[in-house]
Amino acid sequence: MQTPQFDLGTLLGTPDAMKNAVKQIPCEMLHPYHNHKFGLYSGERLEDMVESIKENGVLSPIIVQPDGGTYEILIGHNRWNASKIAGLGSVPAIIKEGLTEEEAEMYVIESNLMQRGFDNLRISEQAAVIAQRHNEMFSQGKRNDIIRELKMLNGENDSTSGPLVQKYETRDAIGNEYSMSGRNVARLIRIDKLIDALKILVDTNAMAIRSGVELSFLSEKAQHIVAEQAEDFKIDMKIAKQLRNAADENGNVDTATIIRIITGTADINPKPVSIKLSDDIFSKYFSKNMKKKEINETVEKALEFYFANRKDPT
Questions:
Q1: What's the sign of the alpha-carbon dihedral 147, 148, 152, 155?
Q2: Is the pLDDT of residue 62 over 60?
Q3: Nearest to 54, CA basis, from 28, 17, 79
Q4: Is residue 74 within 8 Å of 33, Cβ to Cβ?
Q5: Out of 126, 174, 223, 261, which could bridge 168 as a Cys pair, Cβ 3.0 to 4.6 Å?
Q6: Which CATH code is given to the segment(s) 1-98?
Q7: Model's pTM, two decimal places?
């Protein structure tokens, strides 16, 4: 697979050429977009990109914006990641200055849609796109400007220079754009309100979309408690509905109720805290050949000795 190649000649021939000059930026001065909701390439797709970059370099610049003394990536997260793996010290980039939060978000979303296609996105990624479309602050005019620029970068003809596309303010209109029903649009908007741990369950089919919709009405705190329990218990539609019905108008549900609904018991037994020793501490007191049981016994004896000889403050 070849890395995408943009027609820079078209871009640099525009009046904005000076604003879009390509510069080499060290990889360590770049970091991902703060609200990046799209997964990076992995497996064969990543390997192909790394090999292409090793052989040909980065043929198309990424797009970034200044962020203090560093730069935040808007477009090109995969090229940046593959470049680091390939051993490159820097990547070509176009620096965008003065973007609003909404404009920066548009660059991220539109580029991923153009590169991957909506149907190839994960459920949570589709949800992010649909939710952004539904946002009243998402300017349709600015979106068209950015789409035109991205198409120019990609060497495509500008097909949006005619009348502006109708604003997608309702779920049915958005559904027409993505060939889905208004009901499915509404569901995806709700999925975008889930915490990341629950989105992963939906993406991996460990939890049904409709169950995720019900859980999206819970507060963030309640969702985190549900996610912890979901590590051991499957959250089906029945449980999800019970949790939503148990919540107050702000989505709050107490821990005892959440555990009772999910586990079917009234027990509140918090999971034991897992402590990981640092490599320095482990190598200082234990050898690599020691068995786990022996290590646990040693730690237990040390703790017993410590607490038996600790003087409580008076």
A1: positive
A2: yes
A3: 79
A4: yes
A5: 174
A6: 3.90.1530.10
A7: 0.54
